[in-house]
TrEMBL record:
Coiled coil (residue ranges): none
Gene3D superfamilies (alphabetical): Homeodomain-like, Resolvase, N-terminal catalytic domain
Source species: Alteromonas oceani
The protein's name: Recombinase family protein
InterPro entries found in the cross-reference section: Homeodomain-like_sf (IPR009057), Resolv_N (IPR006119), Resolvase-like_N_sf (IPR036162), Resolvase_HTH_dom (IPR006120)
Domain Resolvase/invertase-type recombinase catalytic positions: 1-101
Length: 152
């Protein structure tokens, strides 16, 4: 029986192995899927291995040197493709929802919050602190302040 709060995608034995590896080591695996349950997870592990200078060998295919293809680049490009496909599917779904009138985006911040933010900034408070105090994202605050400047 599995522990209740354990991530089903967690690979504790792999994590212990990865912590023991050091620059110049070789990690030999039978299948790329042994590194993670998704392309993104595999890409993260392989990017970390590459950054640490650890050679990854998949089915005796060496990734560094020689005529063998670079497995790191292959995995990174597959992860990017996966991300692009997800983004495309999301955009299609949003477009369909908008067409049906079900998706209208986020509601705008009330003018009172922006006025309060301007007062706090005028008093000398840093924008990061203002955003935290008003419980909004810093980038959201900057977006609304820029929009207000354009109106003025």
């Amino acid at each position: 029986m599995r522990e209740p709060n354990v991530d089903p995608g967690a690979k504790p034995k792999l994590n212990r192995l990865l912590k023991r590896l050091k620059r110049g080591d070789r990690l030999i695996i039978h299948d790329v899927s042994r590194l993670g349950r998704s392309i993104r997870a595999v890409a993260a592990v392989t990017a970390d291995l590459e950054r640490q200078g650890i050679m990854l060998i998949v089915d005796n295919l060496e990734s560094v040197g020689g005529p063998a293809p670079n497995i790191y680049a292959l995995i990174a490009s597959a992860a990017q493709m996966d991300k692009d496909l997800l983004t495309d599917r999301q955009a299609i779904g949003i477009a369909k929802a908008r067409a049906k009138g079900k998706y209208k985006g986020r509601k705008a911040l009330p003018a009172t919050i922006i006025n309060k933010a301007n007062k706090l900034i005028a008093k000398g408070m840093k924008k990061k602190e203002v955003a935290q105090q008003l419980n909004i994202g810093e980038s959201t605050l900057y977006k609304y302040l820029a929009a207000q400047r354009q109106k003025d």
